[in-house]
Amino acid sequence: MQNYLEFEKPLAEIEGKAEELRALARQNEEMDVTKEANALDDKAASLLKGMYKKLTPWQKCQVARHPDRPHCKDYIEALFTEFTPLAGDRSFADDHAVMGGLARFNDQPVVVIGHEKGNDTKSRIERNFGMARPEGYRKAVRLMDLADRFGLPVITLIDTTGAYPGKGAEERGQSEAIARSTEKCLSIGVPLVAVIIGEGGSGGAVAFAAADKLVMLEHSVYSVISPEGCASILWKDAGKMREAAEALRLTAQDLQKLGVADDVIAEPVGGAQRDPAAAIASVGEKISTLLKELSKSDAKKLRTSRRKKFLDMGSKALVA
Fold first, then answer.
1. Is 301 part of any domain?
2. What pLDDT, on a 0 to 100 scale, did the predictor assign at position 238?
3. How far apart (Å, rounded) are the C-alpha atoms in residues 238 and 245?
4. Residues 246 and 309 both lie in one domain
5. In which domain, by residue range, is 230 found?
6. Are residues 35 and 151 both part of a single domain?
7. What is the pLDDT of residues 240-290, one digit of tens each?
8. What are the distances in angstroms from CA 103 to CA 36, 71, 106, 207, 212?
9. Residue 13: CB atoms within 10 Å
10. Total of domains in the chain
11. For residues 89 and 140, what is the distance between their CA atoms, to the nearest angstrom?
12. Is residue 156, in this structure, part of any structural domain at all?
């Protein structure tokens, strides 16, 4: 069953009417509703295409958070073979909000790391809704160290509202763990490709995104804070999240113009949730292209160009 977002209500009505007609036809074989149902399908397709051509930043936030979008686990299962998960930070615990391990991508050994939100109530609670604790970032550092030692490219899949803000996480050094993970991204001498597949929220996303190449799905978002959090701080009113989303310039298109995102991956009409297989395939093609490009550089060149990229980013943003 399709889950509809708030702004998709007109679409839900049309598609619902088409399904009602077909349900009636299934109950009465003499009833022919093909023409009427197809007309409604065409109307819905046209409405969907027009709707997704002019999404506001807040609507893009809603799409990025859609529960039916493919998550990290879906990408790993579809794009990687021989995935061997590696658990724990060798210090405190294993954080289930962060998946990571050894795998093969196009038969090439790699290390893949990503945030996993879960897809039902049980898994979302187990994964802490994709909000990593310090041990999750320390696990990522351990995996990136492993990749650097054995010359394996690193692929990160980012989808988090932000790092977990709980008391225990702060007591165990949340900010230090995020800083160490960001530092490790910048210092490894192997190719690092980061893909924002949904939400890229706050330092929790940056910790995996300080990459040679950062690409975003068309309807994903990436920002220093959520629109609701920003609105609560600036206007003392979380209800002003639409204004905050506009001001944050968090869409993939804005961030490409600012030089933060290197490329934007087109999604199927209606978002990745409408055709997960097609969205996953597009991400796979982009990762393949970028890894081939980055494989031409040695460790010294990768480190130098990666650091320069982030040092130059501020000046590009000012010009934009």
1. yes
2. 84
3. 11
4. yes
5. 61-319
6. no
7. 999 999 999 999 999 999 999 999 999 999 999 999 999 999 999 999 999
8. 49, 17, 10, 21, 20
9. 14
10. 2
11. 8
12. yes
3-state secondary structure of 133: coil
Which residue, 128, 127, 79, is CA-closest to 107? Answer: 79
Helix, strand, or coil here: 260? coil
Measure the CA dihedral 96/226/309/212, to 10°: 30
Q: Which 3 state secondary structure label does DSSP give 155? A: strand
**Residue 183: strand, helix, or coil:** helix
Mean pLDDT for the chain overall: 93
Q: Is 1 within a domain?
A: no
Claim to verify: residue 66 and residue 45 sit in the same structural domain? no
Coil, helix or strand at residue 223 = strand
**Contact indicator for 158, 114 with CB cutoff of 8 Å:** yes
Alpha helices in the chain (DSSP H): 9-27, 34-53, 57-64, 72-79, 121-126, 134-150, 167-171, 174-187, 202-209, 227-234, 241-248, 252-257, 276-294, 299-319
